[in-house]
Structures are given as structure tokens and as C-alpha cells.
């Protein structure tokens, strides 16, 4: 499985320094049209950047005979998959929930978020809703969702499996994929591309940092962005002078 | 698992004689709000009734590195799950596909439909689209979908697993659930309820067949539908006279 | 109230002879942008034309404490408003249901349709769904809806009032408005405009019947549709010769 | 009618101390699936909590002959129902507007909000839009909507009745229901359940306040949330020590 | 411009013999994900196949100062672009209208359809609605739309330009692209690909005609569809025997 | 063309002092139902007011043969229309992009925004998405969109023309129309109405500033808003005393 491909901390570190626009552009150059989770936003505008491997959780619609008893949260196993997932996920991983884009009930709330934050989980993402959004937005834990809905999960969702391939916001997510995010949103990087996307994104980001100074100073786009030979030479000089992200 | 609960041919036979309105009413009386697949319609208006157990197939969004090679349909196993599913499903079963309600590419076309029809599969259902709708609508095979879309499956979908619990048109479907349909659409009956729903639905359908004759003759709803004691007695007499569905 | 304005059978007769395109054009000329019920279609393609005054029925979302008992259909009054409405509506009227554009449960089924058909009701319209669509499509009774959904009404709807102003498919409908429909759909005519819209629509329809013969014979649109003076003169001759709709 | 059931200030006070997640969970335990107004958010992130009884206002689509004259706001009665409603609503009540989920025109703006705030109204809610969102977000008055739209109400809405049962964001609201909200959104509590939901929610909230300290300190969910016997005993000791919300 | 690339009648003839599923598969093999017009359907189920080059017409939202006067249809030029387009389009071409996926008013009705049919236009397509759907469905003229809406075009649309690049049902359409359709829907083929797509689609269609006989006779998908070497050899023999589409 | 109508800086100055609610009300009085861009919001809540003439840019869906090469941004002309537009737009103008309401890829990002800001462009608006939302929200440049999406433009959009009439958020926008916005959103004013709308809006805004003091002090709506003769007289006195916006 792809999960056996090693992704180094250096790669994750580079990814954390790159914006989502840069990452999606690098993925697009490799033929990937849409790896950004459209419609999901962080609960807090102060959300910092993160990168980690995906730990997936899959929901299906709830049904009255299986999910209507709120007292079952002490159970282990198949009737309490969400609790099992929150305990199984490891430090540095990112929880990605397939809620079928349905925000009518919460995928999780502040108690589960707190548990994950204390375990060192990197972030939590649903294509549905979270509850307790105000409290979560005050935590140092990146949480992304489509909406803030208080209704309890079993009203519309059953957690049915973890660590399977899923869809999230219409993007395929395989366990072990590298998930990167910041205040602008979240990008899914196929695990086998993590290193090359990180390297090329870092270089692109650095170049755009330089080019931005030109555009901000009034340069025309033509010749500057993208750079012509003269501008590229200037960039190389700037970079050689030790400028970094 | 629920699949070990026996569902007799007699039960399936009763279910085939009942309309979707009757079945959903019986399910509602047991607390199930929505077991009808809203938004899905048969490709042919001449679709007859069917009942059989669910064989599930799960799609996630396709991705350029995994699904972009149309030549892989000779492969076996995880990279060709849809072909495996069509060969694995058995006579009398109903294929239910979770296409995440996305009609932008076809879940299947007439070739796979023909294969299943010839195997004795009872019906095929997707909450996305089928292609070759005109040809399929001429086949003696019930096929339900949200739309008729020609685009090939890997444009938007990857078949990732079979016989897992899924959602279809926002309704939970577990392998082995009993799926019943006719020209009006499809209802999902939790397997453990199949017998009691069949028995009570048959009785309700019979009673309404009688009550219809009264309403059709000009009776007021009050006293007739639902019936008062006098009307009920008339019904019992009518039924004792050997009238059936 | 507007209901006191008389609308003659002659006016209704003219309206039944006019297409929805003509009626909406005449309403547009009077400043009414959208009086057509977008998204609603007849259950049968063979639906003939009808015209009658609106009898309105208003639904709100159902709630578990009020609508979860299917046994209450023998009750009279506020807990069984739909049954009361079907009995209260009179021959020649048109039932218009505000289902909040929500097709997840049926607004009514074939039993209530049959009752209304036998009473001489002109048509039934919902901006949600009907159940038993196949049976209803075989009846000589125009029925319009957004979808065909089997689930029983109280799953999502409570009938809460009759003969109030409502919205239907985003169009205002006041009790007594004139509702006209055919196989192409339904138009709502404010009651006070019924006569003038009928008269002008009849004239427009007659003129277009003539102009169609010209276009069908190969005439350019310019000069013909709309007609110039020469073509108008031809029309007047044609009309004077006794041609009618 | 339910409005005759007394709801004490103590009950309202307890409700104000409870989060929406707790309230919806208590309602779910009583069989109510969705009483949260999905998709509506407060105009200000600093919105405090409130609780009060619903005063309802119902909109239908506007029509060119009735709503196109902006000069009619001096009128009394049926042609100016919104003004009448703002004057009729009393201190402590909550205005709930059924805008048919349509945000294309404003349900109200800062002038009406100011009038209600000065009268002591507790909050205003629409499932459509408000205008003047920036000004309203600076007022000490909770206002919830789906969007901020400047267009004047009669462009799409006519206020047609007050104090009728309505739908708001797909939830039934009866006059007199208890409406509770905070920065996370709004929950509708059927009036006859207000006291028991308040009592049980208060107790749940208190228990979760305690349990949070355990989870925040690194405890596993299993044994803690929900609590086992040992944890419950700890909670009782903590509570007996006088800890409150 | 691409319009200068010749597309022969032989190519068009081949395209007319191929199903949309074949055409979209051939386009997908060349990297085109979605060239099918999702959500558009023919007004008549008896619609035959057609192929021709695109003549485009672009709508924007109407505005009260420009489009509210229905009397301007005698004008020439920029205030009557739709009439100009219907007169400018030539025999064999296909009218493709960008209605911004908005079905709230008709893109055209039976009079314009009749004019185009008599001129020899191959088909008319809108991603909005047509009016007079019942009449059009009886004409020998393929017409595709999202809905059947009577309301007159200026209620929501202004025809602003012809023969510009447009979007239709979220697919790019350039003047001169080859448009192919049948009862299953419509596919857009970039003009420069018309010949190779026609040739390869014809060959694929022929092969599938043969393979269908095998699947229909009970063959497993594996080995047959797609064919293995033995099956391919059988096909070549069958083809050499003179079998054609 | 309308662009030849002069719009003075005094007119623009008045427009900047008026809220969107006032502007849309004045337009509604002239028969314009919806000139507000529903669903678009500024990236920064601190966005100040602006007014300027529209410079339009039109997108269609991208296609793999034309838009899949990110290296073409050095080109001039038809294959790089967006870059041309950013260089062609002049100080004081407002960029309005028709993205077909599709937020799946970014209409532009911070580099183009910076270029425009430095050129003195007044604002940028798309009915799709921007990328780099966090950075843009920190710039002194009003930017309005439906969402914040990182994916690069050619994934879904091709810039195909500038300075044509377009739709933006379902509102017609002609080059030269006057665009006004603030933290509440954006209104489109047909150019020929700019002066009269500015004058009447300024007067309305001033009157409402006065009336607000009455309502804020506890006055009833009736008699105050709208004002009766006595209140109007008070206003005139207040205005005569030199009070201004």
C-alpha cells in the first residue's frame, strides 16, 4: 500500500511553508485537477498551517434501528466506530471524515476535538458540520467543516468504518495521503507525490515571494509574473543572497 | 450479521404485490422516516415490480493516478472492483450503487446491465447516472437512476469496495437489506423487518383495494379512508368472499 | 376580497384554449415576471387543459409530537387539515399545495386524487411530490408535482391551514386566483386579471395560429413574427373568413 | 393551545446557560431529530445567549400588483403586516420569520432591528437574509440569517400573516415555542418540553463541564465520556462541592 | 480559427451512428473528462441522431431597462440578437444556447423551432428551458433542454451575442465544434478531433456490437468485455464477414 | 454606448456615502428588482466603500486542449485574456468577473490583486472564488467572491473576453455600469441612472440618519418610519441646521 512510502519530516515541514494556491498549482501541473476541499473552511481565522497523513473515517446515513440510542457510546467496536477512531488515530495524523457533504448533523464536537488535540493529532476535517464551533474556534487545533450545526451525529450519520478510501468534499482521500492546510483551506496530496510536490512548491513559493516584491512595487505582469529571463536572473541573485521562505 | 436472517420467497412474493406507498407507510409506523430512494426513477415506465436482497457497491471520486487508464478493465481485484461486483452478484440479488448522488458520469451502461440480466439479477440501482438509457429502457431489467449521463465512469467515479454498508440517495443500505421496487420507485426494507412489513403491507394493500372501490364510487373520506367500524365490517365480508390482491 | 370578482365560464373556456406561453406573455406585458410554476410537471403526458379557481392548502415541516401518529386520520379539524381540505374543495376548483418545494414525502396519493376527481375538482398541484404516480398518471385527472415520492406525508409535512395565501414553486397564490394548465405546465393568473388576460390571450393565440402557417411554410421571422402591416392584414382577412382556435 | 403552558423565568435562565449541542441532544433523546436551524448564523460572532418565546411572521412570494409600491408603509393592517408585527411583538419574545429559505431580498434591516431592540425583544431570526448586516452586527441584539442581502423586501417577499405556525430553515415553529440561541446558532424547543429540557440540559451541561476537565487532561474517551461508574462518582463529589455552570 | 478545419460529411455520418457512451469514451481516452451535456434531455423520446457544427448564442440576465418591452422584436441588430441568430444560422448547423443553466424562462418556443427546422438546422440545445414542449416534442426536430418553462425569455434572459465561445451545461462550446446527439443526450467534440473521434468511435461501436452478442448470450465480462485475444480474433472474423453498424 | 454618459466624481462620492440598502431601494423604485450581487461577500470585514465603473471579464469552462498548459502566461492576446485584462483595466475602474457562479477554481489570487491595487483599481469582484483569501483580506483592496478556493483557474475556467456584457451573480453587468460596494456587499447601477440614484440615495440616507435617532429613542414605526408630516417637518429643520451624512 501507499502507506509504506516514507514521507519525511523535512517534506512535511516544507509543505507547511507553502500556500494552498502553490500546492494546487503543482498538483495541476501533474494532471490533478481538483485536490482542494472546496467549500470547507476553518472554524478559526487564526488557524495556522499543518501537514500530516490522513486517517479516514466514513459515515453513512443513520437508521432508526441502529443509531437512535444515544446510550451506546460505552460500547466497543462496530457500534461505536467514531469513538474507536478518535482513540486509534495517532499523533501527527489528520482525521478526515466523509460526511457525504451533509451538514444537517454534527460530525463531532469540542469533546472529541479536545481529546484529539491532547493526543497530538494535527487537524480534523469533515465535509459536513461540527458542533460547538465557538469553543473549537478558540482552541489551538485546526478544524475544517462546511457548517456549524449543533444536532447530534446519529440524527443523520452513522460512523461505519475507519481507514478506508473515502470521498471528502468530492475529492478522493486514501489513508496515508498527505493533508496540508492553513487559514485558506485544505489540500490533499497523493502520498507518492508528497516529496516532489513539497520540493517544487517550496521553490515556487520562494520565487513568488521575490516576484511579489516586483509586482507590489508596480511592475507589469508581463515580464514579471511569470518572470522573463532577466527577472529570473534577478531572482537567482536574490536567492543566492540567502533569502528563504 | 443480519444476512443470516432468512427471508422466504413467500415474503418476497408479498412484497412484489405491494406499492411503495404501502411499504413506506408500514415502515413509518415502525419509526422509519425515509426508506424511499427520493429522486431516483426507473429508466422505463413499464418497469415491473421486483424484490431481492441488496448487493452493495461503493464508489468514491476518481483520481488521475488511479482511474485514468481505461485499459485496466482486464485486471482482477482492487483496480477493477466494478467488474468483480458484476460477476460476484448472484441471481435474485439487487445491485445498489453508492455514487454519492453525483450524476456527472455513468455508474454503468447497457453491457453490464445485460450481463446482470442474463445472470438473473433482479434490478440495478444507482444514486448517480446510467449511460445507454434508451437501450436499457428497452430491456426487461429494472434500472433506477437520477439521470442518464454518457460520460464514462472513471471521469468521476472509482469503484472501491463491494458488500459494505453504504448510503444510496441519502438512505442507509446494508448488504442483505430487502430492496423492493416498481414503476413508482424503490424502497429499502431492513432485513430483520422483511417478513412483518410484507405481511402487514399485504393486508393494508388488500384493505385499500377494497376501500378504493368506495372512494371511487363517491364516498367521503371520513368514515371510509380510514374506515370506520361499518366499513371495516364490509371489508371483512369482502375479504371472506375470497378477494385477494 | 378578490374572490368576489366574478370569473365567467366563458373566460375559463377561453383560458383553456390558450397555451401557457401565450398566458405568461400576456401577464409579462402587464408587468408580471414569473407566474408559471417552474419545475412542476404533469404526471401524465396526456394531461388535457383545465382552468379553475385556486383552493389553497398549506404545509409546514412535520414534528414528532404532532404528526407521528398515522392513526389520527379519523379526527376532524386542526389535526387533520388535509382530509378537511379534500372534503371542502368544490367542483371546478383547483387544489394548490404549498409543500415548501420539498419532495421528500408525498403531498397526497391516489386515494385523495380519486376522491377529488369524483367530486369534480379540476386539478391538483403541489410543489413537492405525489405518491402512486403510476396510478395517478392513468386517471383522467390533471396532477402536477416536482417528483414522485412514496414516503407518507407526515414524514416531512403537516397540513396546517387551508384557503390562506401561499407560495407554490416560488409563485404567490391567493385563494380564488385562476389556475390554468395543460401538458406543458401551470400558470397562475391573478383573479382580477382573468378576463382581460383571457380575451387578449385568445386573440394572440388565434393570430399565432395564423402566423405559424407562414413560418411553417418557410417565411423569415422578420415581417412575419411579429407581423408587419401586410401580414397583419392577411391575418385579418383570414380571421374574417371565420377561422377560430 | 400550547401558549397557555407556563414557562418560567427560571427555565429560560437555565436554557440560556446551555449550549445548542446539549439542547439538541436532549431533544433527540425525546425523539426529535432536527430542531436546530441549519444554515442560519448570527450576524455577530459576539452574539450572547438568549431564550424567549416565538412570535412568528410568515412571508410568501411578492407579486407585482400587491407589493410593488414602496409607499404603502404608512398603511395599517393586511397590506403592512411586517410593520404591524414589529409593533405587536412584546419584550422578551423572539421574532421568527419564514422567508422560505430565500435570501434574494432582505427580511428586515437595521431600522426594524433597532425598534425591536429598544422594545426589549430578545432576538430576530429569518431563514432568508437581513440587510444592513454590518450595522446590525454592531448592535447588542442577536440577529440570525442565511445571508446579508441589501435588496428591499418587496422584491421577493410579502409579509402575509403573523402568529401562525410556520417553517423556519425546515423546522416547524409554533407561536409560543421556546427559541434558544447563542453564537453557535438557534434551537427550537416545543413549548411543552421547555421545563424538562431545561432541567436535563442544565444537568448534562454541568456534567460535561466536569468531564471536559478529564478529557482536557488527557483521559481516554472510554470510561470518561460517557462516564463509567467511577467517573460518575467523581462528578457527584465535584458537584456536591458546589460547582455550578 | 478552428472553423477552417474541414469536417467531412463522411465524418458526420460516422458520428451519427455512434452512441454518446462511445463518443465520450473516445474523448476521455484523449484526456477530455466531461464533454457530455449533463442534465439536458431531448423533449421527445423518439429523437433521432444528428451531428453538425455548433452555432452559438449567448444569454445574460435580462434587465428592466433593456428587455422589458416585448414590442421590440421587429428591431434588427443588438436589441434583437435572438431573431438575428435564428435567421443567420445555416442548414446543418446546431444552435447551442448558453442560458447560464437557468430554466426560469424559455430560451425559445415552437415558432423559432419551426423556423429552424424548415431552414434545415440540425438541432437546438439550451442549458435552460424551452416553452411549448408538447408541440416541439411532436416535431421532427431534436430539441434539448433542462426543463419546459412557459415564461417568456425577457423575464430572465437577454440574447447578447452570437458565435462567441460559450459554456453550455458546464461544457465549453466554440463555434464550429461538432455537436452530436441522440435520444440519450448530447456530446460536444472539439472540431480538430472530429475525424479521429469519428473513426475510432465507429470501430469501437462495431466491436461492441459484436461483443454484445457474447454478453447477451451469457459470457462473463472477463475475457469478453474488454475482449481477450481469442475474442478479438473472433471479432475480426465477424467483421471480415462484412458485418457493419 | 452608455459609456459615453458622463458620471462625475461628485456622483461617485455621493454613492460611496450610501448604504447598499438605500441604493437597492432607489433602484427598486425605478422598477429594478435585483441589482445586488446576492451571495458575494468581501474577503475582509473591514472593507470600506467604493464606487467606480465596471470593467468586465468573461470566463467559460476550461477545456483540456486549450487551458491545460500553465506555461502560457507569457503569451499575449486571446490565450491570456486575464493577464491582458489586468493590464488593460484603468485606475478607478472595478473588475467584474463572470465565473458562472462556479467556485471550484480561483478567478484570481493575491498577485493579480496586488497589481490592480497598485494601479489604482477600485475593487475586484467575481461570482466564483478567489485564492489567497487570507492575504487578500489584509490588503487595502475590496475583493468580493462567493468562496475562497485555492485551485488554479484553468482547472475550471478560461478567460475568453473582456469588456463584453456579462452576468455576475445573476445580475446583468454592462461595461461602464457603476459598481458600488462596502462591507455589506455590491450593487450594480445602470450607468444612465447613476446621477439620479446618487442624488436620491443621498437624500434618503440623510433622512434615515435623522429618523434613526427617533427610532433609536423608542418611537413607534408608525408616524416615524416612514415619516408623517410632523416628522418630516422635524427632519427639514434638522437638515436646515446643517446636518449632513
Keywords:
12 strands; homohexamer; alpha/beta; 8 helices; two-stranded parallel sheet; 2 domains; 245 residues; eight-stranded mixed sheet; Glucose Oxidase, domain 1
Structural overview:
The structure is a homohexamer of 245-residue chains. By secondary structure, the first copy, chain A, is an alpha/beta fold. Chain A has two domains: 9-191, Ribonuclease E inhibitor RraA/RraA-like (Glucose Oxidase, domain 1, 3-Layer(bba) Sandwich), CATH 3.50.30; 197-240, no CATH class. Helix content of chain A is 33%, strand content 21%. Chain A has helices spanning 9-16, 20-29, 64-67, 81-88, 110-119, 133-137, 194-216, 229-240, and strands spanning 41-42, 50-61, 94-98, 123-126, 129-130, 143-145, 147-148, 157-162, 166-168, 171-173, 178-182, 185-189. In chain A, the strands form three sheets. In chain A, strands 1, 2, 3, 4, 6, 8, 11 and 12 form an eight-stranded mixed beta sheet that branches. In chain A, strands 5-7 form a two-stranded parallel sheet. Chains in contact: A-B, A-D, A-F, B-C, B-E, C-D, C-E, D-F, E-F. Chain A binds chain D through residues 70-71, 73-74, 76, 83, 86-87, 103-106, 109-112, 114-115, 118, 129, 131-134, 147-152, 154-156, and chain D through 19-21, 23-25, 28-29, 33-36, 38-39, 41, 45, 182-185, 187, 208, 211-212, 215-218, 220-222, 225-226, 228.
Compact summary:
Six copies of one chain form a homohexamer. Chain A has 245 residues and is an alpha/beta fold. Chain A has helices at residues 9-16, 20-29, 64-67, 81-88, 110-119, 133-137, 194-216, 229-240, and strands at residues 41-42, 50-61, 94-98, 123-126, 129-130, 143-145, 147-148, 157-162, 166-168, 171-173, 178-182, 185-189.
Amino acid at each position: 500500500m501507499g502507506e509504506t512510502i516514507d514521507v519525511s519530516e523535512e517534506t512535511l515541514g516544507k509543505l507547511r511553508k507553502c500556500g494552498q494556491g502553490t500546492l494546487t498549482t503543482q498538483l495541476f501541473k501533474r494532471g490533478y485537477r481538483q485536490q482542494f476541499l472546496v467549500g470547507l473552511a476553518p472554524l478559526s481565522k487564526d488557524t495556522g498551517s499543518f501537514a500530516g497523513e490522513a486517517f479516514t473515517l466514513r459515515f453513512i446515513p443513520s437508521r432508526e434501528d441502529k443509531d437512535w440510542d444515544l446510550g451506546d457510546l460505552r460500547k466497543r467496536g462496530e457500534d461505536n466506530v467514531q469513538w474507536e477512531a478518535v482513540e486509534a488515530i495517532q499523533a501527527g495524523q489528520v482525521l478526515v471524515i466523509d460526511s457525504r457533504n451533509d451538514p444537517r448533523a454534527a460530525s463531532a464536537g469540542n469533546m472529541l476535538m479536545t481529546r484529539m488535540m491532547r493526543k497530538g493529532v494535527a487537524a480534523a476535517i469533515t465535509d459536513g458540520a461540527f458542533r460547538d464551533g465557538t469553543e473549537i474556534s478558540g482552541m489551538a487545533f485546526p478544524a475544517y467543516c462546511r457548517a456549524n450545526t449543533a444536532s447530534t451525529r446519529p440524527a443523520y450519520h452513522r460512523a461505519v468504518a475507519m481507514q478506508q478510501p473515502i470521498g471528502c468534499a468530492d475529492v478522493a482521500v486514501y489513508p496515508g495521503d498527505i493533508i496540508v492546510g492553513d487559514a485558506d483551506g485544505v489540500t490533499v496530496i497523493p502520498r507518492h507525490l508528497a516529496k516532489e510536490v513539497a520540493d517544487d512548491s517550496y521553490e515556487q513559493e520562494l520565487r513568488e515571494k521575490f516576484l511579489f516584491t516586483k509586482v507590489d512595487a508596480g511592475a507589469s505582469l508581463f515580464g514579471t509574473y511569470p518572470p522573463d529571463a532577466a527577472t529570473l536572473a534577478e531572482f537567482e541573485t536574490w536567492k543566492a543572497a540567502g533569502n528563504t521562505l
